[in-house]
Fold these 3 entries.
Entry 1:
Amino acid sequence: MISEESEPSFARGRRYVAFLLELVSLHRRLFVIAVAGASVYALCTVASSIAVEWVIDNVIVPRFDADTGFSVDTSTVVAGGALIIGIGVLRGAGVVVRRAFAGMCQWRVAQTLIDRVSNRFVTQPATWHRRHSDGQLVARAGVDVDTTVQAMAPIPFATSTVLMVVVSGAWLLVTDLVLGLVAITVFPLLIGLNVMYQHRVDQHFDDAQQALGEFSGAVHESFEAVQLVKAYGAGDRETERLSLMAGRIRDARVRAVHLRGTFEALLDAIPSAANIGIVLLGAARVRSGDLTIGELSGFVYLFSLLVFPLRVIGYAMSGLPQAYAGYHRVKATIDEPLDPDPVDSIGTTEPPVAVRLTDVSFTYAGEPTPVVDAATAEIRSGTVTAVVGPTGGGKTTLVDLIAGILPATGGTVAVAPGGRAMVFQEAFLFGGTVRDNVTVGLSTDTLDDAHVWQALGWACADDFVRALPDGLDTTVGERGVTLSGGQRQRVALARALVRRPTLLLLDDTTSALDPATELAVLDNLRAALAGTTVVMVASRPSTVALADEVLYVDQGHIVDHGSHDRLMRDVPAYRELIEAFETDRAEPAGGAAAGGGS
């Protein structure tokens, strides 16, 4: 829990100070310049009240005084005007510097935090991502970072306000001890009010930020699965679920706003009442000769100017609980230890063996039954091996173990040295251009368009890419929405092929292609990447028949390993499965599905 009702105020204050110092340290120079500008503003604010006092006593009052002949020297008027204008210009410059650099500091800090969160996402292996909701992770790099940096903007002004209060408090006491004591007693009262408010509102903002993160994650996932939601008629259920989550955010924020309303009212009432008392008491002291009119005017003017900066301190303090709640979530992601990378557990083999599995097992955490159990096999270099088995038999998990996406919970996986590439059944494309999607992660200095077109040709994707409005520069939309399923699979395959991997892993990658295109793609792989070892999950008989060897997997076990013809002859269960695949493909629905590669 970020904050507890029982936590002492000083402990919470120390926590917030450490939080702010940590943010400031990210871009200290910008913050120091912003504070310097705010300090100039603060000192000029005190100086402006002194200038008002001087002008009233030396320019305005003499014009109504018969003893001076109702006249003032021109030089005095010019000096008064120059004094006020000069202080005003300097004060305005301080405001510009403070706002400009405070804004730059705020959003540079946001950029730094987003970069750190994103880098953590990238460096964490797939095992870590499987344990976390995509929507929650998006919220950490978006909503939570935005909430965190909201605390940055008012801090330079708030720090300069402390300077202003100290300097002005001293000047008020010097001007008139009695009025000064009355005025400065308001300062601790307002600060105490801020502390009390912050203490009570802390938990509400924490609850609201937590609920907002959960809501953002749920919305993201609901939009991602919008087709599934519609297909199962779950729209009303999703609407109700999201409405309940939004209601929790609303309730927490309403409670916080209710407290803030009371807080704002008191911040208005206390200084106003104090100002009335200062005017009344000051008038009496002017009558007694203890104050001049100019001194009283400057006194009231300065006290009025201090009210708004003191409210900024309250505003800054009121935003700290919510900002800290967001930062707590961001920091938890950044500081979370890296999961062991499954790739590091993979051993190496020597040709002619490309992949060696020795008693490999994998069991998901909390599950009693292994998905892959004591799998042992060798795959020769340069061959095409099909992984075949019934649904849920462990095919994809086996390929994930070879790819280093999942760590073996038993046995060893060894792969020949060289590059590995994997293409998933659900091809993921970024929202950029075709070129961006093929070359992602590669240096464009050594990879020109000729290499991109070559890879697209191997994947039988060059023809339809040339027909796109802008060719390689065509934007494919988020997740490749403007392309068909078969087109997305071929672009994703080209992304793998442009790297010329020594081991290519395909998880039913050609499932959305028609048989003729699939055959052309596999022929291209054999011709262009003759030395590449291909391991592919396959469920189409025509695909299986093209493989050099077949790994027959059932219930996590490698039942047999050999040629397709031998398995058809010697393994009845395999023969029945292939015949079932052929029967399924012969159905009208299957035939329609097979044509989806356009």
Entry 2:
Amino acid sequence: MTNYAVGERIINLRDSVAKGEHRRVRVDYVPHVLDICNKLGLDWPRRASKLTAMMCETETPVILPGERLVFTRTIPAVPMYYSPEQWKQKFEGRSMHESGIISNICADWGMLLREGLARRKDVINARYIGEGGEKLKILSETVTEAVDAVLSLAGRYRKKAEEIGELEIAKTMAAVPYGPAHSFREAIQSLKFVHSALWMSGHYHVGLGRFDQYMWPYALADVESGALTWSGVADYVAEFFVSLNKDSDLYPGVQQGDNGQSLMIGGVDRDGKTSVNKLSYIVLDVTRAIRFIDPKINLRITPDTPRDLLFKAAELTKIGLGFPQYSNDSVVIPGLANMGYELEDARDYSVAACWEFLIPGRGMDVVNIGAVSFPYAADFALREAFKAESPKGETFSRIMEICRKNIERQVDKLVEAKKNILLPPAPLYSALMTDQLETRGDISEGGKYNNLGIHGSGSANAADALAAARKFVFDEASVKPARLLYALDSNFAQDDELLLMLRENAPKTGNNEDAADNILRELFDYFAEACEKYKPVNERWQRARPGSGSAMYYVWLARGRKGMLEPVVGATADGRRKGDFFSSSLAPSQGVKVTGPFSILQSFSKIDYARVCNGGPITLELSDTVFRSEDSIGKVADLVALFGRLGCQQMQLNTLSVEELTDAKRHPEKHRNLVVRVWGWSGYFCELSEEYQDHIIKRHMLAV
């Protein structure tokens, strides 16, 4: 099994980025985009293209020592082209998704590499000449302005390279992103440059899609022609990965690292054939060598995924970056097809910023419009049923029915609040989407797939709470409803005995116990049923897409956040105290004693993922002592294979050392480069808010 190392040049570039030396070229200047737009009286689409144009115009080409791939931001701020008051007016009567800017989608990078940017401009200009109309005129003008600005900046980089004698860089920049790539170097430079231009245009969570698929033809051709060796290919991949960490401190997110630079490898191709190649291996080796938080690596697995690839993935897991995250083609593809995605497109899936599934170039899904709080549904149902002195006449099935109705009501509230989302024009991004200019228009008007994703948060806590109530109140009749409700209201302040019973003696998700697991599946069935009513949501949105992830909601639903539709949940009947976080995505509730990782996979394999396909990983925390030997690393690889065979959908493995994390909190200056998985992204531990640090330290530890 070949291991691709990185050379001294890459190490020097990595160290330079880690020290932030590239930030010296940044200038304290904000382009006067708003003033120009207001002065010219520009409409919304033209303001969007003017932003791209002015950001590109004010950039100063910089080529740093040792670089072969170029682009470094010199203008840190991306200004708005509307004032806050104007922006608010644009969305009057409509919903805004996050900041309002189009984000969390993925371009058709393969199309960019095959065609080049100039071809995309020609496509819309030819269509406008042939069809006419005001909409096409605006689209033609705005795409042309945005594309020309990017190409002009590329031209200035070419001139800069010529001035300093970097003739290979100049040659590359003369070819791309203007035209199609003809070498691996040109392809990865084109990707780097245009990916950066999207960030400069105000977009964020800009996905990288199936890297080992769209880059493969260029790597293979160069190696076969003798232009590159595989080590040379790895060198370019390494530099590209280093470069993704260069300007990432400028990117918005909940915390630094939450920037959506996610990359997918492996899986099957659009014809259903295994598509693993040498680039798949190189990506894992290079990520392990560099040890940066970007890009976020995802690996699609199939029954045919080579074991040595899984072994490499386990070696990457060992170092604690939280990479790769795994997706199971055998489950994801049928789920997406069941949700209305064409089979070829479903086979071509990647992930959005964290784990939500999308189709690069074709998906305009808004994958996170909010979360259903399963703990709130469970708590509401128990309180509604037990508000009398005794459960006389009540049945557990009625509690589940109340819970079902509450979940349905939560889904309805979310869809009602977000079904009129307004997306702003995005000329440059529109030029990078499959057939967008040819058959549709600006992506603000929709793509091939337009679904609304909803997270299902705190599922294990909710299932455990309901299972405990059924056991102690109904099956054993050992706990009166009034006692349970009083304990919840008082945060178990005067009932340590009941707290211990709920924590230690009740069925728990993660132990392969049907008493809890069947409730878990039923909760997700309720969720799916509530979402399936929306086919379509309205004339703009096709479906509501349920998922098993939690994103930041495992914190927000427990401690509150402005704008949340559901109330904060206090103490819960699974033995969780008020203020404690819920489990993140699919994971046992915090503090639950589980048999081991196999039982966790068995529990979560019972969910009907054909109906729940917005993504959301099973999250396992592994002690760093798991990786003692090559044999133990192989066992982790076998665990991944078992995850696939059991029919689970998605999984992330996080390697933690409680001792190191605790020391890092006390002495952050000693652990500046310590990386941890937060939820669907990884970040530097010492830069996280204290609440996230504490949650990570408290996560359940397992030994394989």
Entry 3:
Amino acid sequence: MDTVRFILVITFIMVSMKLWTSWETTYGTHQQTQIQEVSGQQEPGITTNEMPVFVEPQTQGQISSSSQVGETSLSNSSVSINTDIFRLVINNQGAGITQAALVDFPVSLDEPDNPFVLLEDTMETTFVVQGGLLSDQASPTQQSIYTSPNDSYVMQDGQEVLRVPFNWEENGVSVTKTYEFTRGSHLVKVYYSVKNDTQQVWRGRSYAQIKRNDPDTGGMRFIYTYTGTVISSPENRYKKIAFDDIDELPLSTQITDGWIAVIQHYFLTGLVPTNKEESYHYYTKSLGNKLYTSGLISPGREIIPGQEFVFSEQIYIGPKDQEKLAGIADGLDLTVDYGMLWFIAKPLFWGLEAIHDRVGNWGWSIILVTVFLKLLFYRLSAAGYRSMANMRRVQPRLMSLKERYKDDRVKMNQAMMQIYKEEKINPFGGCFPILVQIPVFIALYWVLLESVELRQAGFMFWIKDLSTPDPYWVLPLIMGITMFIQQKLNPAPMDPVQAKVMMTLPFVFTVFFGFFPSGLVLYWVANNSLSILQQWRIMKNLEKAGLGHKSN
């Protein structure tokens, strides 16, 4: 029993250490995405294998001589947009979003007026949304120059919708690209109104793409979260495509009712078709220098002379809010990635959220969920604690057997099993509490790490942010003390080497948990405290009864 319990504890340590390293990549990050050849009738205006990153306006004739006048100054100009939840910058070159700050999500609690910047185009970070039209005829791409009536737009008080137009025209084809922002929504709608004033049919498609550099600089990270592309289809609602995979095997496939996104800790930028009944072409591409694009291309359209057609797309720029994401597209809420133990993590989050709706404090929600879990596993834990209490009671007899049969392990094991049988003790019963806690611990870790609702959520006193480590290490120290008390209540291993290792664990875990989110340490403190009370009560009952097998 000692050896099994020792192995379980060491296993728990190893599993815990993996929580902040690249173990998460083993359940999906490097799943290869196979290239699928597109079959069926050729889409008008573009070959199925053409990617927008290959479009060169200078060779495709997509920038006229008139548009080249003042091109340098126009390409460097931009339009600022302020809504109730966004501060955006859209560049006139391509009319793409080059900066997006989220007003409701400050960078830190110390900077409440400094919004978190999700999209940006700087020397260190490239994370932008681009788009355009693809055609053998006149059409604007992400390189083309647009003009806008104003250089800034503001959503006024009481205004529900803000529309920002960008205009482009060449050789009888005029395009108005309009961004539509809705109050309170992180879902941005984009429209391409294409008017054909030429003498021939215009054929083409719209596209949208996210350009992102790989932020991974290598090295050991205490907290690991996935940053990269994810794609969804009816066959596989959530599939990761790591940047390394894009280098090795770019994606090129047709999907109906899908979406593609680039996610990071707490936030995502996603491209969602407006019509899930139509088949879109999805792609990824490596541009070199750790720069990648992930995008989609709409079905082809034909516009006869004198007519107009509107392409439409949707861009989500915001937090991983499960409820809102689920209402936008099937499987989009899966970007809140709880890993392999999602079936445990999701109920944990629902429980936390339900309690939070009533108590208004995520810290107390964690404590109350811990109480519920202890009640749920009370009988199982009680059986384990009774077993450990009984083992502690008979340990002097076991130690004497070890001394008596130190040169004959067979006889010693036979004598020990006889004692277990007489006292009706399950030598493996004390392992159950550890086995129960490991999956719950891992699942709750990912809930606290992935749920944006807990970002910058306070508890009380010095705990201002449950998603970050305790700044004063108070909770880790309390956790170490509770772990030490638990060890004193448990029977010590008969092997002196194992006993010494077990005695160092409270100190090791105190340091270890100092780098964990304080919400997780709060759970562990509450869990240990309740376990100590339960185990102490069981031991007292057994002492009063004088029977190792008396029920609690």
